[in-house]
Please model this.
Amino acid sequence: MNVDIWSDVACPWCYLGKRHIEEALEKWDGDDVAVTWRSFQLQPDAPRFGEPGAGAPTSEYLAARGYEPAQLAESQARLTAMGAAAGLEYHLDQGKHANTFEAHALIKAAERQGLGDAMVERLFKAQHEEGLRLDDPEVLTALAADVGLEGDAAVPTDEDREAVATEIETARGIGVNGVPFFVIDRRLALSGAQPAEVIVQALEQAAQEPV
Model:
């Protein structure tokens, strides 16, 4: 069974969704499940490294989009508590607003070395627990080294970037407008950081449906 997950490493709900799918797979006693991470950008027009506004605190970006400070603090506190229940130590107030395209390309490079999931995990942690900039080339190189990617293996290729662009376009084509978005065996979709129990039920449903 295959599960494709469209996500953005800038999305704290996606990190929570990663923990929920991991919990679900621990409880799942059916066929083996292969998880593939697919690229999505919540803010594809975010400034890239070196451009004005790149790397600004996420709180400033959200304030500019109309979030009141009290509203943002309440939302982050609620999400931090949910993350803690899943074993995550969110520091969302330290987040940096950055274009994640190159981070997604790095995930593709890692996948070619069998380290895709490890790279996704490291990027999530860097963004949501450590407050690092995921558009900074030096930061990305260091994060790649943390999961065992060095030298040319840590440098995304044009093909990696094309794969990211294709996955983003595919997401638009199937109507993805929020992440995480799970597609099980190309037949059953789940949107949002659903609890592990809901994911298990979806896996059971997919397993029972004829191909």
About this structure: The CA atoms of residues 45 and 113 lie 29 Å apart. The helical segments are 12-27, 58-64, 69-85, 101-111, 116-128, 137-146, 158-173, 196-208. The chain has a mean pLDDT of 95. The chain has one domain: 2-208.
